[in-house]
Task: inverse folding
């Protein structure tokens, strides 16, 4: 499925089949998005859910989705003030979600977008016991869990 465009909080088609700017707004916590921030060294790191911001010069709720393998995507934080995209990717290992340097073919950095009943579910590719877990939040933390049919695993 195609990712949600970053300029809209509603579902829309992608402009490209291979890359697009996206944001993921929590269904359970409206107005709050999957976000990143800079650490003390100026590097991007995953933050807790934050207010969705699409008008700031540096948009911490904006990601670049790049299609990498079949239905799978990688997500990199935006860095428009530095003229491009960072070289770190949204990663999950076991149930932890964080950013680490992007690596071609790394299944721990690949995600599948599933559109169902007016919402997105973002499934982690992973491997082993945690393969197929979904991006999840309790409002404070971001993690992956098995599909539980809960609103914390729905995104728009």
Result:
């Amino acid at each position: 499925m195609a990712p949600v465009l970053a300029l809209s909080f509603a579902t829309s088609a992608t402009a490209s089949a291979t890359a697009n700017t996206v944001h993921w707004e929590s269904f359970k916590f409206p107005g709050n998005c999957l976000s990143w921030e800079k650490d003390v060294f100026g590097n991007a790191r995953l933050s807790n859910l934050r207010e969705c911001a699409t008008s700031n010069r540096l948009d911490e709720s904006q990601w670049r989705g790049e299609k990498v393998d079949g239905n799978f995507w990688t997500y990199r934080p935006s860095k428009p003030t530095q003229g491009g995209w960072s070289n770190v990717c949204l990663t999950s290992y076991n149930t932890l979600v964080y950013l680490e340097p992007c690596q071609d073919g790394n299944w721990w950095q690949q995600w599948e977008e599933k559109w169902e009943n007016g919402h997105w579910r973002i499934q982690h590719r992973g491997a082993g016991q945690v393969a197929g877990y979904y991006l999840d939040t309790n409002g404070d933390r971001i993690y992956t869990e098995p599909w539980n049919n809960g609103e914390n695993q729905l995104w728009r």
About this structure: The chain is about 0% helix and 40% strand. The longest strand covers residues 72-79. Residues 97 and 143 are 5 Å apart (CA to CA).
